[in-house]
Amino acid sequence: MYLNLKEFQIIDVISEMKILIIEDEPELAADIGAYLSAQDYLCEYAGTWAQAREKVELYRYECILLDLMLPGGDGLDILDILKEQGQQDGVIIISANNDYKNKIRGLHAGADDYLAKPFHLPELAARIYSVIRRRSFANQNNVLQNELKVNLSSRVVTVNGSVVLLTRKELDLLLFFISNKNRVIAKSALAEHLSGDIADMFDNHDFVYAHVKNLKKKLTEAGYGNYLKTIYATGYKWEG
């Protein structure tokens, strides 16, 4: 039984980070997805080895939940694909096999964590949070850049000590920019990050422009150092 225990303290997570749930049990995948979506994660699904391979080859995720026993192949092969492509997606193995040798095998193959079934959903959310924070922000709770500060736990952004009120999308964009500092990020990549694998359904990326414009306006009015640059005909870059 996969319990959503309300008496557990639920760790607040970074807004709308993308999660890929690779799980062939539809009911379990739906339960995980519903719980994580309520925690402001953007969830996508793969129920077979072939679907999982297609997802990891086409898209990037902050964290992948990987079942090892999949129709069509071994889940550990997905880890090999990630390594071959040099991807930095966090991976948590979720498996009914609690044998320590199997855990070691998975961790040696490149997984960040291993959670045996059955598990409590708040524990899974806590482990996802830890993997994302460790991979993206060197395990820190506060992200600092001169006058700008982001507290990852409380999701509070301040500039020169004054709180800047951001929407969830704007905060998500800010963290995405900071974690990709000094890299040019294409508008298409931002669209995919914000909306997942439905990004291709949009005729243009005007919604990306709107979110970036609002984020930059709020930070500028608060007096930040203009780190977010527009790269003509390409995308954006956070300089630092």
From TrEMBL:
Domain named OmpR/PhoB-type: residues: 139-240
InterPro entries the UniProt entry points to: CheY-like_superfamily (IPR011006), OmpR/PhoB-type_DNA-bd (IPR001867), Sig_transdc_resp-reg_receiver (IPR001789), WalR-like (IPR039420), WH-like_DNA-bd_sf (IPR036388)
DNA-binding region ranges: 139-240
Entry's Gene Ontology cellular component terms: cytosol; protein-DNA complex
The keyword Isomerase belongs to this UniProt entry's keyword annotation: no
Protein name as catalogued: DNA-binding response regulator, OmpR family, contains REC and winged-helix (WHTH) domain
PANTHER family: REGULATOR OF RPOS (PTHR48111)
Gene Ontology molecular functions: phosphorelay response regulator activity; transcription cis-regulatory region binding
SMART domains (UniProt xref): REC, Trans_reg_C
A GO BP annotation: regulation of DNA-templated transcription
Pfam families listed in its UniProt record: Response_reg, Trans_reg_C
Membrane-crossing residue ranges in chain numbering: none
Superkingdom classification of source: Bacteria
Keywords (A to Z) from UniProt: DNA-binding, Phosphoprotein, Transcription, Transcription regulation, Two-component regulatory system
Protein source organism: Dyadobacter koreensis
4-aspartylphosphate found at: 67
Limits of the Response regulatory domain: 18-132
Lineage: Bacteria, Pseudomonadati, Bacteroidota, Cytophagia, Cytophagales
